[in-house]
Amino acid sequence: MLDQITPVILTYNEAPNIGRNLEQLAWAREVVVVDSGSDDDTAGIVGRFPNARLVVRPFDSHAQQWTFAVQQTGIATPWVLRLDADYIVPEATIREIAAIVPGAQIGGYRAAFDYCIDGRRLRGSLYPKAPILFRRDRVTFVQDGHTEKARVDGVLGMLAGRVDHDDRKRLDRWLVSQFRYQSREADKLTSTPWSQLSWGDRVRLTRVLGPPLVLLYCLFGRGLILDGWPGWVYAFQRMTADLILSMLLIQRDLAGGSTKP
């Protein structure tokens, strides 16, 4: 199965992550890396891996970038392994993928993720399962808030093996990214009909309940208080992201003339 798969990765200033990702993909004949114009050493690191091919495309949206990466970069294999730069595929998961014999009805496979803080796996997170392995001719990408969703035509299987999400970028970079991401989340939340919002999004729209509730849920609902400081760091990250969103929503309220909480 592995000879039928091309891993595809999107990057932008991913020097702290991309090398560890590519090290786990030595089995692939080719890895396609679509970069959005990084000004760090991302390109240099990719160039050290003989099976990696770098393509540069200015970023417009995640959905458009993924559509380009999967459909317009000359990939020859029928299957694509869709990876963020901070995804690390463990050996056990690679062995599982190698042994797959998919039926014609199978369009792809989802995976669950182990969230890591500085390489330490947490016992839980809010990170959702997602399709990562799919037939190239059966996937489309749609924008969903700050990120994209892959829509796969056909039955989606579920991998038993997990994938590590292990982002090692500096805190200041993370904060800059969150401001950009939460601005797009605010656009999504304020333009989506109430009836179509999840309960979590409705809580976030209150402006005040989201940050404390997500902190408590991470620490006690997901048990991260038992993971020591890495668990606290993750819980603080999720609370900070919701705080940024709340402030952006309130800023829009004030700009529109509303002063009521």
Automatic annotation (TrEMBL):
InterPro entries attached to this UniProt entry: Glyco_trans_2-like, Nucleotide-diphossugar_trans
Pfam families the record matches: Glycos_transf_2
Record's keyword annotation contains Transferase: yes
Residue ranges occupied by any Glycosyltransferase 2-like domain in the UniProt entry: 8-100
Lineage top rank: taxon: Bacteria
One GO MF term attached to the UniProt entry: transferase activity
Keywords: Transferase
UniProt entry tagged with the keyword Transferase: yes
CDD domains: Beta4Glucosyltransferase (cd02511)
Family statement: Belongs to the glycosyltransferase 2 family. WaaE/KdtX subfamily.
Protein name: Glycosyltransferase family 2 protein
